[in-house]
Amino acid sequence: MNKKTILLVEDNADDVELTRRALKKNNILNDLVVAGDGVEAIDYLFGTGRYAGRQAEELPTVVLLDLKLPKLDGMEVLRRMRDDERTKYLPVVILTSSKEERDLVNGYKLGANSYIRKPVDFIQFTSAVENLGLYWLLLNEPLPRPA
Amino acid sequence: MRLFSLALAGVVALSAVTFVLGFLGWLQWRMESEPLHSTLEAGGGLAALVVGVFLLRKDGERGQWKGLLVGCGFFGMGILDLFHAAALPGHGFVLTHSAAGLVGGVFFALTWVAGVGRYESLKRWLPLAVISCAGAFGLWSLFLQGTLPPMVADGEFTAFAKTLNLLAGALFAAAAARLLLDYRLTGNKDYLLLFLMALLFAMASLTFQFSRLWGGQWWAWHMERLAAFLFAIGWMTKTAMDNLAVRAEVENRLGEANRLLVLEVEERRRAWEELRRAGAYNRSLLEASLDPLVTIGPDGKITDVNAATEAVTGFAREELIGTDFSDYFTEPDKAKAGYAQAFKEGLVRDYPLEVRHREGSVTPVLYNATVYRDEEGRVAGLFAAARDVTELKRAEAKIRKLNEELEQRVIERTAQLEAANRELEAFSYSTSHDLRAPLRSIDGFSQALLEDYSGSLDAKGKDYLRRVRSSAQRMSQLIDDLLGLSRLSRVEMHRAEVNLGALARAVALELQKAEPGRKVNFSIAEEAGANGDVRLLRIVLGNLMGNAWKFTSRHPAPRIEFGTVEFEGKAAYFVRDNGAGFDPAYASKLFSPFQRLHPASEFPGTGIGLVTVQRIVRRHGGEVWAEGEVGRGATFYFTLSRKEAADE
After folding, report:
1. Residues of A in contact with B437 (CB under 8 A)
2. Are A14 and B444 a contacting pair at CB < 8 A?
3. Which among A12, A15, A120 has CB closest to B472?
4. pLDDT for the residue B266
5. What is the pLDDT of residues B600-634, one digit of tens each?
6. Residues near B305 by Cβ (< 8 Å), separated by ≥ 6?
7. Does any CB of chain A come closer than 8 Å to the CB of residue B535?
8. In a 10 Å sphere around its CB, with 0-12 CB exposed, 13-18 middle and 19+ buried, how is residue A122 labelled?
9. Considering only CB atoms, which chain B residues are within 8 Å of A122?
10. Which pLDDT belongs to residue B274?
11. Average pLDDT, integer, range B9-36
12. B492 interfacial to chain A (CB closer than 8 Å)
């Protein structure tokens, strides 16, 4: 019960694999749910479409959101999340390789909690993931779930 | 003149005296001499005739009249006295003399009514009539004296004779009064003469009844009368001569005046010729002008035009003159306003109007008009010249059209550029994202291999994987640099006054912070003013000083300088180091992208830094160049201009 899930919204399989490995290396053993595109992410969060039937109350602890996604892109996912009462306060970390200032600004404007740039250097990447995990899963106090 | 009038007056006075003396009985002596008497009478008669002739030639209207009448009187008297001279003492003797007196008196008295009737016709026949009648009567008296009433009876004058003479005397007296009045009124001396004679005759006739034939007083009277006549003739002659003299003088003066007049006329003629010639010259000027010229009167009607005006309106000169000036324009009210303004302000300049030709075509013109004034300074009219601006307008229209086209093209070009920029922007955005992802995979899985399968890999295998990783990272750096470089051209420049000295210090601080272990001697100018984009200039200094920092890493006592120097009259900035330097032979390659003069193993870097500097400096309208020596350091100079470069 109340397992802290991480929702990773990422279309790049390699990045998924590397992230999974990095998490493992840092002993973050939470469940990692992967959504390959924006629609899948929304479906999962609200229990629609592919994930119809899922208990929507069981939300992930943190969402790691890539921006460039097929079908529905990251910003749109974020917007929808913030528009919905259920997911309004769900922590979202934008994890993207984009260095565009525009994306940074828009991300924060739309209500992202954090913006991390994916470094090419894997070692740095691993370190970033470690920090993320430690912070959002352990240190940060999420909004309490309605009982 | 005075002499004659005095003499005559003297004679008259003498006559009066002698009459009185005779009356008193003093002049009693007697002398009988027919021939003497006849001579005296004949002389008197002739003199009378002469005086009559003189009088007929008097001037002045009234004068002419009176002259005619008195002249006829003298004729009558003259003729009858001639007969009297021829007569022997007897009835005809006295009758003729008395008749003479009466005729004279009548005509003299007629001066009172002078001016009645037609002078010209009277002048022709009256004298002749008088002479004829007098002559006839004279003959009658002489040869038919029996038929006439007696003059003498018993040695005494008859009542008839006395009456005749008294009548004559009265008439003469009346005439005398008239003539005196005339003298007083006009001051004409001739009236004085006639007055004196009339007076004399009046006295003679009135005292006739007291005269005794052949008596002293009787002889005295004859003498006196003759003297009077002679004086009168003398007077008249003198007058005539004076007149002649005056006339000669006048003619002389007239001749002189005429001569002068001729000269003046000649001069006038010459001046007129000049004027005419000048007029012709002026006229030719007006006609030669290609600009339509027109004069307008104060009422707005055309008073004159030149050939050019005829051409532009299509009307002949005669048709244009007298018509309203504004009739020939497409906007008559505007034309009217134009010349109203000209009349008010004295001139009008470049007033635009359109002339309409008779056949419909329209010529755009600009009018220049000035008023001209007459001698009293009143406005006499307006002189207007039009300038055909068809060509001008066409040129203007063409320019406007070209400008519009140009603007249109600029708009299109700008849109194109903006579109291109946006594409580029989008491209670099996706590039930065899409290119990095595979790189991350390469690096990531290489590392994963190194970590997870280190047991299965020998040293060489690990080395290969390490190279793979480093290449991936390098590629990532290259991508970043390239993207940064391309962005530089598109980013908007915000120019401001920048202190490069302060900027250099900030960069130095950053470099030091990044590697706190290194000790570098910085010598940075206090103030280095420049005009440019502060962010871009920071990149420039960051690159140059970063390079200096990098290439002095092996120097035991590294020194980095920043300052200003004068170059070709302008301010130039420099970053100098005492590091590795470079071979000046390869200086040209310094600013080529990715070209490096040192292997990456010695000094890291992608080779994009200097290209970036060059691009930024060029965007500021300046230039960058370098001096260096291997092992002795390098100096990089750059200039900035105040204005944007032509090609950003």
Report:
1. 12, 14-15, 97
2. yes
3. A120
4. 93
5. 666 777 677 888 899 899 888 899 999 998 888 99
6. B292, B293, B294, B295, B317, B320, B321
7. no
8. buried
9. 440, 443-448, 469
10. 92
11. 78
12. no
The crossing angle, in degrees rounded to 10, of helices B159-186 and B61-86 is 150
CB contact under 8 A, A122 and B447: yes
Both tokens of B207, joined, read 């005292």
CB contact under 8 A, B440 and A100: no
Asked if the model's pLDDT at residue B62 lies above 60, the reply is: no
Q: Say whether residue B482 is in contact with chain A using an 8 A CB cutoff.
A: no
Using CB atoms within 10 Å of the CB of residue A21, give its burial: 0 to 12 exposed, 13 to 18 middle, 19+ buried: buried
Altogether, the residues listed in chain B come to a count of: 648
Q: Which residues of B596-617 are buried (b: 16+ CB within 10 A; e: fewer)?
A: bbeeeeebebbbbbbbbbbbbb
Contact by Cβ (8 Å): B96, B141: yes
The residue of A122, A124, A125, A126 whose CB has the most chain B CBs within 10 angstroms, and thus the best one to mutate to test that interface, is A122
State both tokens at B55.
């009088």
Interatomic CA distance for residues B295 and B280, integer angstroms = 17
Paired with A35 in beta bridges are A9
Closest CA to B329 of B348, B309, B308: B309
Over 80: is that where the pLDDT of B548 sits?
A: yes
Q: Copy the structure tokens of residue B547.
A: 């390079």
Cα(A8)–Cα(B20) distance, integer angstroms: 183
B286, B293 Cβ separation under 8 angstroms: yes
For chain B, give the percent of residues with pLDDT over 90. Answer: 22
Q: Tell me what the pLDDT averaged over chain A comes to.
A: 85
Tokens for B87? 């007569």
Give B244: exposed, middle or buried? Use CB within 10 Å, 0-12, 13-18, 19+: exposed
Nearest chain B residue to A98, by CA:
B433
Residue of B nearest to A119 (CA): B440
Over residues B450-489, the pLDDT tens digits come to 888 988 889 888 888 888 888 888 888 888 877 777 777 7
Torsion of the alpha carbons at B498, B502, B507 and B510, rounded to the nearest 10 = -130
Q: Over 70: is that where the pLDDT of B116 sits?
A: no
Quick: pLDDT tens for B327-373: 899 999 998 898 888 888 888 999 999 999 999 899 899 999 999 88
Tell which of A24, A120, A123, A127 to mutate to test the B interface (max B CBs under 10 Å). Answer: A120
Six token digits for residue B165? 């003479």
Half-sphere exposure (Cβ direction) of B260: Cα atoms closer than 13 Å: 6
Distance of CA B276 to the CA centre of its chain: 20
Nearest-neighbour CA in chain A from B436: distance (Å): 7
Contacts of B619 (CB under 8 A, 6+ apart): B488, B489, B493, B536, B644, B645, B648
Residue B188 sits at the chain A interface (C-beta within 8 Å): no
- Flag whether residue B18 sits within 8 Å of chain A, measured between CB atoms: no
Which residue has tokens 């352990």? A138
Closest residue to A120, CB basis, from B440, B445, B448: B440
Interchain CB contacts (distance < 8 Å): A and B: 60
Query: How far apart (Å, rounded) are the C-alpha atoms in residues A42 and A64?
Result: 13
Contacts for B47 with CB less than 8 Å, ≥ 6 apart: B78, B226, B229, B230, B232, B233
Q: Which of B430, B444, B446 sits opposite A125 (nearest CB)?
A: B444
Nearest Cα residue to B575 out of B615, B635, B493, B505: B635
Reference B101, options B66, B77, B82, B125; nearest CA is: B77
Instruction: Tell me the nearest-neighbour CA distance from B487 into chain A, angstroms.
Output: 11
Two tokens, residue B354: 């359109």
Q: What is the pLDDT of residues B585-608, one digit of tens each?
A: 888 778 877 666 676 666 777 677
Instruction: Tell me which residue of B615, B535, B521, B528 sits closest to B566, measured CA to CA.
Output: B528
Indicate left, alpha or beta for B387 from its phi (over 0: left) and psi (-120 to 50: alpha). Answer: beta
